UniProtKB/TrEMBL annotation:
Record-annotated membrane-spanning stretches: none
Entry keywords, A to Z: Chaperone
Keyword Chaperone among UniProt keywords: yes
Keyword DNA-binding on entry: no
Protein name, as recorded: J domain-containing protein
Family annotation (PANTHER family): IRON-SULFUR CLUSTER CO-CHAPERONE PROTEIN HSCB
Coiled coil (UniProt feature): none
Annotated family: Belongs to the HscB family.
NCBIfam families: hscB
InterPro entries recorded: DnaJ_domain (IPR001623), HscB (IPR004640), HscB_C_sf (IPR036386), HscB_oligo_C (IPR009073), J_dom_sf (IPR036869)
Amino acid sequence: MLKKKNTTTTTLFNILRHTTPSVPKQHSPLTFSSHSNSHFLHKSLQSPPFSPKDRSFHNPTWFYSFGYLTFDGKRLYSKSAESVKERSSRCWNCHAVHESTAAAPFLVCDSCRCIQPVDDSVDYFEIFGLSKKYDLEGVNLEGKYKDWQKKLHPDLVHSKSQKERDFAAEQSARVIDAYRTLSKPLSRAIYMMKLDGVEVDEEQTISDPELLAEIMEIREEVEEATDSESLKQILSKMEENLKSWSNTFATAFQSRNFEEAQESIRRMTYYSRVIDEVVKKL
């Protein structure tokens, strides 16, 4: 009887250790080994649908990859959007001076409409004119994203110089990364922690016995679900759990309790993974 219990515990541990993605050292999709008993926890994640070809994206640096989201580590630093002072920037083409603020980052020159090179001091929140806060409810992020792409998309500058086309490709790619990162509660949480210089240990195993049991139960439910109604019920439950832990993260982050914030991220990671797999099966 004791031997069977130990075997079950080992199986639970092996399943759980794959529910949280690790941070790869290179810019590549995350890949997990495949086991028949934990199908939805071990799928290979897809590469980003947009993969910039510009050579400036291949400078020696490190990347954070989470699913199809990629954070350029060279551009992550600790600062608060509220504390950003005005920065004077000069257009590379017409030399007009632009006062860049958090609400109006200098991506396109107001005078000659030329696209500017990427400013590494501008974070993803500033790109959309937002203060650095977790709760983005009511923010029309998609609208802001589309507005930028109307100005920055490389197709719009196909007749311009190679220099400006390169700037357009880089700026457009960064806006895409910013939108995808901020539009999801999990990736937004990870990004905010990294902006504050806090590394998220995505490999740390959750040892809570109750969560271990829940993982096994939900895994079996997903594998055994044969109709859309059952899958929708699982999806609804997982979305509620994700929202609950998302609220926990927001409270912990605001109070600078980074240990609790990281724990919330690990829980959110698991529920997000289940949601993605259920959506694929629907």
